[in-house]
């Protein structure tokens, strides 16, 4: 089965809320959730879908860079390629856009990778999780992302999330250690039995991260995500020896070469997996295997994923048995999507689809509607 055609479709979906990071709002309500969909068709007519979902205040890629790279370099490079040769697929993409410490524009490459996996599994008539060769769980628990300006607002948001059945609360920090610690106290007090952890998105200096850690230690927090800058290896190593919590790295785990260097320097003890940032399932699986074999903690995360990325992540995280709640917060923020049918859920647990491929059905009329919404807002991406 060879790749015969690749269509790149930039779309804009409406948002129902805005996510605020230490660097500012990830996007505005007017901007919406913008992704580049990829529709991959094989020479036998089998179709697979993928997507690039960049977050420009989280990493360097944008929707514009993803669309240009996909259309001009990545898609042409893999036309005619044997879809079952996924390593060769990435080799061809890497020839066009070179990898560095990360896979080289991984968010753009992610769309090709997921579409190819979806197409293969549809051709074989198996769910993606079966292709991965791991079936540890049949679901993943979802975490509610808590991003609030003050403790009262954080407590209210947390109580509502707990009542809605969320089993985890991921709290955005990285501003002022004392203010953030007060927010953490409010969240823990309102969370009930839900698992709570902070994520600074590189927002703290070493001194601030140490201060914050000491302030929240009485709360019984056991996990701290990406406290300091991803390139500050000294700070990461210092934190590991100074705080009782497990420090899990997200932005720093951009690629396997850098994670191996962090292992050599004894500066890592946990990995946050994001399929988007790793260039797709091919490298995300390798990162999961590396983490498991190195004895690192493994947690699941996302980039406000639309349904394709959400589905791929659900298959992967459940396959690897990630039982802590995962930050797949797309449903929390995205108002409408391109799915023909809702994603299978059980309360606030995402169920692993048991139908072929990603296990979701794309409504191409909705795709066309959201593509027009983007064209009307920004006529440069058509």
Walk me through the structure.
With 382 residues, this protein is of the alpha/beta class. It has two domains: 3-126 and 362-377, Enolase-like, domain 1; 131-351, Enolase-like C-terminal domain (TIM Barrel). It has helices spanning 63-78, 86-96, 106-124, 128-132, 151-163, 177-190, 206-216, 233-242, 256-264, 281-294, 307-319, 330-333, 364-377, and strands at residues 3-13, 20-21, 24-25, 33-42, 47-52, 139-141, 143-146, 168-172, 195-199, 223-225, 246-248, 270-273, 297-300, 345-346, 349-351. A three-stranded antiparallel beta sheet has the order 1-4-5. The longest helix has 19 residues, at 106-124. 52% of the residues are buried.
Features of the shown structure:
Enolase-like, domain 1; 382 residues; three-stranded antiparallel β-sheet; 15 strands; TIM Barrel; globular; 2 domains
Helix proportion of residues, in percent? 40-55%
* Alpha carbon gyration radius: 20 Å
CATH superfamily of the largest domain: Enolase-like C-terminal domain
**Poorly predicted sequence stretches spanning 5 or more consecutive residues:** none
Topology order in helix (H) and strand (E) letters = EEEEEHHHHEEHEHEHEHEHEHEHHEEH
What spatial form do the alpha-carbon principal axes imply?
Answer: globular
Largest sheet: 3 strands, antiparallel
In terms of DSSP E residues, the strand content is 15-25%
Q: Which topology of the largest domain does CATH recognise?
A: TIM Barrel
CATH architecture grouping of the largest domain: Alpha-Beta Barrel
CATH class of the largest domain: Alpha Beta
